[in-house]
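To the wet lab folks,

You asked to see what we're planning to order before we commit. Fair enough. Below is the target structure as tokens, and below that is the sequence we designed to fit it. If anything looks off to you, flag it before the synthesis order goes out.
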């Protein structure tokens, strides 16, 4: 069924590609489990779009430098090691820039993000993946203070994370290292003090690494609200990315850049429907 829907959509993808021509598309990936599947997507993207870097986008907003036709930016959230092991080699092979949003508190550790700790324990206790995701969903809706307290019931999960050396290698290979907070809280459930603390801690890590990416930010889970936006402005953020499954409008706001959600192992008909804008269009119609 799902396959049929996407192949039906893909017959519209030329229409949507044209309808949204020259609007910036930003793809939001998380992991790269399969290098070959990812390369197939990359080859397709290269044939249809002009892949830009964060630096291109900065120059666009700072100096009004025009973006190329059909611009597309590749981003990854959360800093999974597969992005280094399987994603970066493909991007390097095709000489492409990209951007990685890291959770600074996980760098150089063997700890997993809190969401995975909940999933692991709930599934160990017999819940299905979907049920465990339901628990995660509830945790995303409570105050940050309560969530942090309740996390004590969930033991750490062992997972090797990117190291400082990895980040240096990645940034030297055209992957811009950017900011996804220190511990990935839901910022709309945080107090102003908690938000400032998250950003201050992240800034210390970026400063320590001598990387400029603190000022390029993606909201964890895409949770943006007025309070957070105000604080981000006080911290002088330059580019802020959403997770809203949309293609950007012609006149973009650098502090509200839309992104399309994709997976690196999705098969091509589904992938094309998402990137063209056909799927995002229908997705928002349905809501
Ligand atoms: Zn994230």
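Sequence we intend to order:
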């Amino acid at each position: 069924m799902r396959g049929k829907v996407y192949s039906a959509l893909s017959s519209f993808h030329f229409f949507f590609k044209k309808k949204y021509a020259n609007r910036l598309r930003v793809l939001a990936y998380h992991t790269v489990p399969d290098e070959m599947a990812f390369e197939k997507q990359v080859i397709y993207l290269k044939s249809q779009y002009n892949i830009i870097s964060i630096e291109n986008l900065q120059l666009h907003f700072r100096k009004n430098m025009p973006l190329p036709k059909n611009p597309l930016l590749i981003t990854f959230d959360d800093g999974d090691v597969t992005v280094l092991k399987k994603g970066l080699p493909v991007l390097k092979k095709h000489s492409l820039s990209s951007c990685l949003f890291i959770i600074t508190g996980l760098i150089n550790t063997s700890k997993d993000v809190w969401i995975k700790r909940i999933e692991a324990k709930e599934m160990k206790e017999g819940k299905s993946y979907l049920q465990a995701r339901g628990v995660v969903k509830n945790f995303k809706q409570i105050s940050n203070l309560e969530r942090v307290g309740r996390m004590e019931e969930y033991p750490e999960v062992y997972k090797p994370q990117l190291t400082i050396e990895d980040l240096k290698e990645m940034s030297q290979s055209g992957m811009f290292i950017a900011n996804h907070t220190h511990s990935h809280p839901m910022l709309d459930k945080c107090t102003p003090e908690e938000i400032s603390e998250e950003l201050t801690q992240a800034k210390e890590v970026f400063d320590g690494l001598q990387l400029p990416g603190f000022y390029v930010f993606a909201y964890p889970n895409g949770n943006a609200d007025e309070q957070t936006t105000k604080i981000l402005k006080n911290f002088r953020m330059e580019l802020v990315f959403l997770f809203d499954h949309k293609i950007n409008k012609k006149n973009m706001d650098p502090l509200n850049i839309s992104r399309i959600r994709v997976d690196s192992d999705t098969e091509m008909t589904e992938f094309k429907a998402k990137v063209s804008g056909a799927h995002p269009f229908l997705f928002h119609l349905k809501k």
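Structural context that might help your review: The mean pLDDT is 94. Strands lie at 25-29, 50-51, 71-77, 98-102, 175-179, 216-218, 239-241, 260-261.

Thanks,
Computational group
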